[in-house]
Design brief:
The complex is a heterodimer of chains A (677) and B (211).
Chain A (H helix, E strand, L loop, with lengths): L10 H26 L5 H13 L4 H16 L5 H21 L4 H12 L6 H13 L4 H14 L3 H14 L4 H16 L7 H18 L7 H12 L6 E5 L5 E5 L3 E2 L7 E4 L4 E13 L6 E5 L10 E2 L8 E9 L6 E9 L6 E2 L9 E9 L2 E2 L13 E3 L6 H5 L12 H15 L5 H17 L10 H14 L4 H16 L3 H5 L2 E4 L5 E5 L19 E3 L19 E3 L22 E3 L30 H5 L1 H6 L1 H7 L6 E3 L8 H10 L5 E2 L2 E2 L3
Parallel strand pairs in A: 2-4, 2-11, 15-16, 16-17, 17-18, 18-19, 19-20
Antiparallel strand pairs in A: 1-5, 3-12, 5-8, 5-10, 6-9, 7-8, 9-11, 13-14, 14-15, 20-21
Chain B lengths: L25 H13 L8 H10 L17 H13 L8 H9 L20 H12 L8 H10 L18 H13 L16 H8 L3
Helix pairs in contact in B: 1-3, 3-5, 5-7
Classes of the chains: A alpha/beta (677), B mainly alpha (211).
Chain lengths: 677, 211
Amino acid sequence: MHGRPRKASKPEEEAASAAKAVKLRSLQSQFMKNHHDKIYTEEAIELSTKLLEINPEAYTAWNYRKLAVEDSLSRIDSDPNLVNSILDEELRVVESALRQNFKSYGAWHHRKWVLSKGHSSIAHELKLLDKFQRLDSRNFHAWNYRRFVVELTKRSEQDELQYTDDMINNNFSNYSAWHNRSVLLSSLLAQNADGFMPNERIPDEYDLVHSAIFTDPDDQSGWFYHLWLLDQTLNVETPLLTSSWPSHGSTIILSGAGCLNGSSSKFTTFCSESGSFPLILYFDQAVGGVSSSTVTIDSELKGNEDLVWEPISYKNSQVSCVWVTHLKYVSTDLCEYKVKIRVGNSPGIVSSRGHNFRAPYEFVFTAHVHDTVKDSQEGIVSWTDGFDIWDAKSKDLNSLITLDQLQAEIDFKWRQEAIDSEVECFGILSDSKIGKLTLARLLMAREAMVSDDAVKGVRYEEILQLYNDLMALDSSHYQYYKDEHSVAFLHKMTSSSESLSRHLFRYRGMNNLVCLRLNNLSLSRIASVEKLLFVQMLDLSHNELHSTEGLEAMQLLSCLNLSHNRIRSFSALDSLRHVKQLKVLDVSHNHIGKHSVDTTRYLCSSPLSNSEWSQDDVGRQNPGLVTKYWDAYFVLRDLNLKQLDIAGNEISGNEFSSFVLQVVPKLVWLDGQKLGN
Amino acid sequence: MQKLDIAGLQNKDGSFSGDIWGEVDTRFSYIAICCLSILKCLDKINVKKAVDYIVSCKNLDGGFGCTPGAESHAGQIFCCVGALAITGNLHHVDKDLLGWWLCERQDYESGGLNGRPEKLPDVCYSWWVLSSLIMIDRVHWIEKGKLVKFILDCQDMDNGGISDNPKDVVDIFHTYFGVAGLSLLEYPGVKPIDPAYALPVHVINRILFTK
């Protein structure tokens, strides 16, 4: 129990406590009888006062008093003096209850209820709050009540901001004051209020928060405020297009199902049974409103007039960073087509924060439709051989990858200056945890702003070293730094075509698929996917991944190797449901079925998250197995797999294998075995 | 028994009141959504508005408070993240930002979790913080072994039960959250508990996977 030490109590203390309990019980039962019989006499009300003085948490007693107040008010013909005396008595009772327990929800709400009647003076309230907030400057009830009073009195946000100044100057270790400051300031910044332009105001705020962080680097009060300021510095409100597939100036080869005739092409080859290929747009923030009217497509490919654009996101959301549509082509029409795309042609693309996409962007690519040999052999995909290394100097790499962000001109100057000055500042603090972490974040932010090839990527080694230091320095949060390390590593790898090409291969077995091999890198997290949209085959084996979050953008992916990772459940593969091309999946030697806690249970679209679901034959025939293997059921039935490897997981076994075959009847290969018809 | 109309407590802005007297708090949003989901009656309320209100309580540190503008608090974060999880709306959560805030609740010395920055660790946050971290898939960011030790250190070895911290007297509330926390930490011998409903996983699965 909060604030009550564990010790053997003396007999006299026990006796006193028993006597108190008897008194409270008798008071409570008398009170409940009054409440039940609707007795609102002076005596009865006084009894509830006594009860609340002993126990301010008695919600029913507060509600009883509201009934009593309404009863009294209804019988006094709105005589203002009488009204005030009734309501003042309520305020007095609340005040004394709060002295007893400052955290009583019921007492605070009762005060709001009385004030909302509009008869009492509110001038007194801020003074009372000052008194309370001096006693406990972190009490969130008092802060909430303060915001309520401020709204009622229409006190200005500037005045309240000054109040947070005073509180912080009095004691910088006041997270509540920093929090309220962030609420007020973001409102003032959003209004572009006088003196609150981001480029003027944010540098001053950095100075203020330094006073907290540099006084005591271990005190967390300023940490989150600093991170919020960094976010404000980087936040370019207007959404921008980051990348696309196909990229500007690229050439792709399209063919029908099966193998391509003489497939030695240096371009990306895309085979499709449905005769369509994806067109992917990747924005720097979640946007809505991508449609055939906001994105126009000019090409001779027939039948693409009313394209449907889909957000690649969780089903309930109509906003996403990634949008995809499918362009149709006829595989017998051998020809070369130019396709011109104009994004933001008419207004309508809007970020989730409500800002318009304002910089129309145009890009062009060439599509060759090639002949195919009808060869329906369905060979097994091997991850051990059949890979050709990529010639790093060849030009086709550049046509594949657009590493430069497709960004419009933005005013980066004050943002860069602010970050440079922070980098300098935190360099001094780099022996502390928050110093190192902040420095690493600042350098990551700085790298994202660099467009000059000569200095691009030069800070990544330093960032990786900072995260290595942090893993040793603060081992409790080892995995957090490890994840950040993986993100920085992937940013580094994708920062130049030279470093990326070291991991690129062609897979001979299937039309020279473009394969990215990131195996054995101890990656615990996926990042930089926006630069990897062209990848068709991805080897992530022998890493430390526990989820496929992020891979949903890779709409070309047809083969994925996740063997020897830390996947705990099929629900962790939920993002793959968006990857409709995926045919080959290896999740062997993971941790599926080993743990009782499923950390992606609610991040997966299923009845648990109240998603609509239709009952199929498998569900009707085997309700028990569906409940037992729900994660495999809901994820696998949405994939179009031909080849699946699940051996080496706790879940593996005959029962599970035969269940998988029912859920994925089109499967050809399971754990290396070809399945009979 | 008097009939209780949970759906009737939803306000125009999507929020929920605790009772007819109109106290509004995201705790009540969670309670309403949790009950109605178990009863398979979520269609009785405006889920979209309920979600919008919860999202309006999201703060710049990634956490959630009682009402718009109110400071983040681990208990309140559980309520909001839980309600978003149940309704399939976790995409509104900034998982990395909130995950960092939540994992920094772990006290380096004792291994226990607190509910807000610069506060003391308390066993009940083993539930509020851990369940939220699990729902957003960031629970690997804390050190589980240290937290198990903290909870076990809060046991009263003579009389049974678990307290808020090793020095205090035990109570039912902290005993429940201590055991629930151990379940979320996969402590041997404790059955799995659902992080959104705080009920056994097999019970929730039986209810929700049955048409």
